[in-house]
Design goal:
Layout lengths: L1 E7 L2 E7 L3 E6 L5 H15 L2 H28 L3 H6 L9 H11 L3 H11 L9 H19 L3 H16 L14 E7 L2 E8 L3 E6 L7 E4 L19 H10 L7 H10 L1 H10 L3 E4 L5 E4 L5 E2 L6 H14 L8 E5 L7 H18 L2 E6 L2 H13 L6 E9 L2 E6 L5 H7 L1 H12 L1
Parallel strand pairs: 2-14, 3-12, 3-13, 7-11, 11-12
Antiparallel strand pairs: 1-2, 1-4, 4-5, 5-6, 8-9, 9-10, 13-14
Helix pairs in contact: 1-7, 2-4, 2-6, 2-7, 4-5, 5-6, 10-11, 10-12, 12-13
């Protein structure tokens, strides 16, 4: 697999091979994280997008049914006395709209009007039969306008909306705004391309379906939102996606779980040695970390290093990391002691080895880079490991393949140490 990028945000040009583990090294503000966001967005915007489009239509129909019922009900009540004496459907009855929308999606014209008429039967309390029938046919016409939308058009809109959320509406080249931003995924000889002009005009081509999701891990601090993410503002699209995974219920699939645990037993053993327990949900629905003796720890009180490993452990135990998925790790070494950096590096390598993940790592640490290089050789996956250097090209960035010349990266990342050594020698 290969990711091609042109004039996207501050990245002028990049051609990145994604075959096992890919490491992008470089200084700050050289576009490393942008590559990860583009990769995550390409996968997550298109993963099961046909199902998402169908669900979107269903939600629109459900909203339409509910709005028209409520609008007719409340605007036709005659007086305050009637507001008290007429029973207004409770919140639990809102499931009726969802069920009706689902039935309508698969019904013929005759059955559609029957479903709407049944749903609106209690409007007889506030409007006459003729008005109610007219409303039902009016709603049917609006429902059909939603159903007649081409699936491809809905899918394209969903993909575009996801890109807008990932990049906060700013995708085009910051220094050449008239140029077209392009992100191209090449998978098994097939192309998926997203072209964007003026941050709003999308040209999307898809020759192959995306069969896997991408999990993006930025800061371990995201775990602090596990009990509040549904009500928190300002979280990025990647963070929200990760929190959904971390908060998911453990699937009731004992056989599959045992098979997965057997395959990744070395990984789980390693994780159990560097974490202090499992994430569990109490009776009130709040998440805590519990050790083997069921001592509860507030997640917010955990160290960043513990959180970094606990995120991986939780995703594995909940079955949220699947074979051949994509994982993006943005500077994972930041919050880790050098010894734990080594453990985390080996963990990444083992995840690729046993689950055949596509893993993209960004880093500016020579220690972590060397750890990845060492453990990929130890576990015989160095042949599917590629290295890139993010370099400034004027105000923009290009990505240089340095797989055969890693020494150039070490020299760049070692410059701060050379500076310190020079200062020390001068004294």
């Amino acid at each position: 697999m290969r990711l091609e990028i042109q004039h996207f945000s501050k990245i002028k040009q990049a051609s990145i091979k994604l075959d096992g583990i890919t490491v992008i090294a470089g200084e700050n503000n050289t576009g490393k994280s942008t590559v990860g966001k583009i990769l995550s967005c390409m996968f997550n915007s298109m993963y099961k997008v046909d199902e998402k489009a169908s669900q979107k239509k269903k939600e629109q129909i459900e909203s339409l049914l509910r709005y028209n019922w409520q609008n007719s009900w409340y605007h036709n009540l005659k007086n305050d006395d009637q507001r008290v004496t007429v029973n207004v459907p409770s919140r639990t009855s809102r499931k009726r709209y969802a069920n009706a929308a689902e039935l309508i999606m698969a019904a013929d014209e005759e059955r559609k009007i029957e479903i709407i008429s049944e749903l609106y039967d209690n409007l007889r309390n506030v409007i006459d039969d003729e008005s109610r029938d007219a409303l039902c046919h009016e709603v049917l016409e609006k429902v059909n306008s939603i159903l007649n939308l081409k699936n491809e058009a809905v899918e394209q809109t969903l993909i575009a909306d996801t890109f807008g959320r990932y990049f906060y509406g700013q995708m085009n080249d910051l220094y050449e705004p008239e140029s077209e931003a392009k992100a191209i995924l090449l998978i098994q000889g097939k192309k998926i391309q997203v072209g964007i002009k003026q941050n709003s005009e999308y040209m999307i081509e898809r020759e192959i379906s995306v069969m896997h999701e991408a999990i993006s891990i930025d800061s371990p601090a995201i775990m602090d939102y596990m009990n509040s993410w549904e009500y928190s503002d300002g979280l990025s699209e990647q963070d929200l996606h990760l929190l959904q995974k971390l908060s998911a219920n453990i699937p009731d699939n004992a056989i599959g779980k045992l098979m997965a645990e057997e395959k990744i037993s070395d990984i789980l053993k390693m994780l159990s040695e560097v974490t202090i327990g499992k994430v569990i949900k109490n009776e009130d629905g709040d998440f805590f970390l519990a050790d083997e003796e069921m001592h509860y720890f507030e997640i917010g009180n955990l160290s960043m290093g513990i959180k970094a490993f606990t995120i991986i452990r939780t995703l594995l135990e909940k079955g949220e990391i699947h074979e051949k998925d994509v994982m993006v790790l943005d500077e994972p070494e930041i919050h880790l002691h050098p010894e734990w950096q080594l453990i985390y590096a080996e963990l990444i390598v083992l995840l690729e080895k046993y689950l055949h993940l596509t893993i993209l790592i960004t880093t500016h640490s020579p220690y972590f880079l060397e750890a990845i290089e060492t453990y990929t050789k130890k576990h015989n996956v160095d042949h599917i490991t590629n290295y890139y250097l993010a370099q400034a090209d004027g105000k923009e960035t290009v990505m240089k393949d340095v797989t055969e010349n890693l020494q150039s990266v070490y020299q760049l990342l070692a410059k701060p140490f050379e500076k310190l050594e020079s200062i020390q020698m001068s004294k």
